Amino acid sequence: YYLFKPHRLFQLNIIRKFRIEREKRKGTVCDQLETEQYQWVSALTSFPVGKIRDVIDEWMFQRPLRYLPPTAFSHVPEIFSRLREKKIRLAVYSDYPTKDKMNALNLSVDLEVASTDPEINALKPAPNGLAYILDHFHIPKERCLFIGDRDSTDGKCAENVDIDYLIIDANGAVYKDLLKLV
Q: Is the Cα dihedral 65, 121, 128, 90 positive or negative?
């Protein structure tokens, strides 16, 4: 068994191009983002959309799931619990699908939103996802706090909807401060 299989280099190329294209197209709004994101890569390679979708699903959405629990910030379940006790509704919004990740982390929220959902069809920092969450919960933006990990996407997204936000650094230190607040 070899850890590195040269005949599978095409998969690394697909993943690389997928990530580059999505990063280049931050803020993109289109009719069918779920399909179009794979078409972007297909246009740059000789691979059909179905093959690209299969590689991305396997290597970005499925295989990493088992590695999520040990890498998660330890304070998140407690913060979620305290917020629920206070009857504060929780939503997760990501540029990528969240359902399997949330299950792997044993976390639940009131609403899960991905940029590729048909109701959104827009990559951050376009405001579509956050606007959808506000509308879904029927609450004013002044009563929301968006927590993210990248100022260039999450922070800008919150600014585009004019809601307060907090950016968590890579070591999660702010989560300890959040615990004190909730």
A: negative
Q: Are 159 and 139 a contacting pair, CB within 8 Å?
A: no
CA end-to-end distance (rounded Å), the chain: 50
pLDDT tens digits, 118-152: 999 999 999 999 999 999 999 999 999 998 888 89
Beta-ladder partners of 111: 91
Closest CA to 131 of 32, 1, 121: 121
Residue with tokens 């509704």: 89
How far is it between the farthest Cα atoms of the chain?
Answer: 56
Which of 81, 60, 46 has its CA nearest to residue 18? 60
Cα angle 27-96-152, degrees, rounded to a multiple of 5: 40
Nearest to 72 by CA among 93, 102, 98: 102
- What's the full length of the chain, in residues? 182
